[in-house]
Amino acid sequence: MRLRVRRLGRVDYHRCWAAMREFSAERGVATDDELWVVEHDPVFTQGRGGKPEHVLAPGDIPVVPTDRGGQVTYHGPGQVVVYLLLDLNRLGLGPRELVRRVEQGVLDCLATLGIGAERRAGAPGVYVGAAKVASLGLRIRNGMSYHGVALNVDLELEPFSRINPCGYAGLAVTRLADLGVAVSCDAAAEALVAALARALHGGIAPEVLQGEPCLPPIAAET
Length: 222
Description:
The longest helix is centred in the middle third of the chain and has 18 residues, at 95-112. The termini are far apart. The protein contains 4 helices and 11 strands, in the order E-H-E-E-E-E-E-H-H-E-E-E-E-H-E. It has one domain: Bira Bifunctional Protein, Domain 2 (BirA Bifunctional Protein, domain 2, 2-Layer Sandwich), CATH 3.30.930. By secondary structure, the chain is of the alpha/beta class. The protein has helices at residues 13-26, 88-91, 95-112, 185-200; strands at 2-10, 33-39, 43-46, 63-65, 72-75, 79-87, 126-128, 131-141, 144-152, 172-173, 207-210. Strand 8 and strand 9 (144-152) form a beta hairpin.
């Protein structure tokens, strides 16, 4: 199996979301799966089932309703986001197994950095003690996934106090910098991509192709 990785840098959320939707809608049976590695400008994103009462005081940070699962979360500089554009039929994965494998990839990545982390039943994501270090939100349509996983490296945590993260009032959020790991976003992204690639393919590293460091063209901005 082949997996194409695009390192897109700092990307506007709306443009990236539009490109993901278009890529997923137009891909064919022979299209390579892709991982898009990005950072975003400060933005709150609200999942399809998101409740407005979980957005407490967003201030000057925009709130974007999206088509992923889950509740509200925050993205910003210093956080590594990996979008998972996968053909689940080809991988033989259902939604629950996909979530399990993505979480496993994050756990494996953190282990390489010397961090012991865990899952939490009924609350997708990865935790260190009581604090969430990585969040997960996906959309599956016609057997194709998009959206993905966000790992907190060295981002500003204050915006999480303006929401109930992932719909949980008072949920603690942490970052690698507060866990004693001094690592750049680029280095953390490399470790995360390698761990996700292996976990998504059942422990077998796929052939990894390097994609152009830019978004595929999209028909229109949204």
